[in-house]
């Protein structure tokens, strides 16, 4: 078939139709045979870039040639996040309805910046985020907006908190006019918190990392003393970021204990539940919302554990007027006759142009229903608990962070080998060997200073057998490493 010309004419559309069918077949084959591929890509750094031409083509190229290169040059450089033996990081799970909706999103190519540029994208986002709010048990009074990532959503919350704490002085006059503002989170909080602190202009030296307890939860007593010390030194505490489900070890900060302190001192409380938030669709996991009445903003990622393709982050805020005031800019060319009667999501965060991300969420929520989604997450939680129990009972292995939801951390700890530095090295070797095998993919964590392997369950297609096979692989891989360590 001829290369594409300018688009829009019937000949091009005919080609588009044929290519689209071809790709759908490839997509279904990919998902069907994904287990035959190594989970983590095996390419070396520079290998992909080195195989590609150094400049863009001058003349149009044929679709067949582009697609052949996709298969031959690009696919080997993919790490397969949708592989059911993907236990690294947190899941970024997708699902067939989400993929189909993404095809439509790309085709209609909306820019959902103001109501008028896409009434459907705006109003579907309002409706679907309220469905989602009810599904996760957030009380009335929280209003949602989709952001690209939790990092960005937390940044937006920090900016709103900054303005509340400075009476809008930072937005108006800059930091020099405002008191010194301080930020708090646990030492287990996600790295995006520090990044956001820098970007929002607080300054890294005004971020307090509060130590956590044995269960990896922020210690409220230490938070209280840090806040009091800052106030005594003339600073104004602006925001506490509490985490539900910390990234390394799955700790849960107490919203009640942290929230009472925030209420006492008039501090914005933001909750980062990026991963764990999806589990709130299970009524039996709502314990983590105890104290939600103290919370000003709450973020979680349907793009992690709710079968919705990356990117799709749900941010909920309580005082939407104050939030929108931080971001609204009255540009003449963006004014429309609907005025205040509609929501213009450009005023709800950093981006002006926004993708139509509510569509895939709508497809997912309708295709599975609340009960279908609950069954999947419940299965993941049960699988993680079961395998953590088996590992805990196995001589020579040790749990460093017990299973919380679908995450735990373990390490190899052969009897008689107690040197921490050697144990760290042994477990690093184990991790690399597991990942090099291509049969599973894990990442590492430090739990209370000890190097461990994170076991995170949550890919849509992960079943009992994948988790059991991973555990068998761990035992098999550990055998020769233990022998080597004993000989050394
Ligand atoms: C994954 C994660 C993030 C970052 O999520 P992005 O959407 O990639 O920015 C933030 N916080 C926690 C607790 C996470 O697990």
From TrEMBL:
GO terms for cellular component: cytoplasm. The keyword Lyase applies. The modification N6-(pyridoxal phosphate)lysine is found at residue 304. GO terms for biological process: amino acid metabolic process; carboxylic acid metabolic process. Its EC number is 4.1.1.86. Its cofactor is pyridoxal 5'-phosphate. Keywords: Decarboxylase, Lyase, Pyridoxal phosphate. Transmembrane segments: none annotated. InterPro entries: Aromatic_deC, PyrdxlP-dep_de-COase, PyrdxlP-dep_Trfase, PyrdxlP-dep_Trfase_major, PyrdxlP-dep_Trfase_small, Pyridoxal-P_BS. One of its GO terms (molecular function) is pyridoxal phosphate binding. Pfam families: Pyridoxal_deC. PANTHER family: GROUP II PYRIDOXAL-5-PHOSPHATE DECARBOXYLASE, MIP05841P. Belongs to the group II decarboxylase family. This is L-2,4-diaminobutyrate decarboxylase. The lineage of its organism: Bacteria, Pseudomonadati, Pseudomonadota, Alphaproteobacteria, Sneathiellales. The gene is ddc.
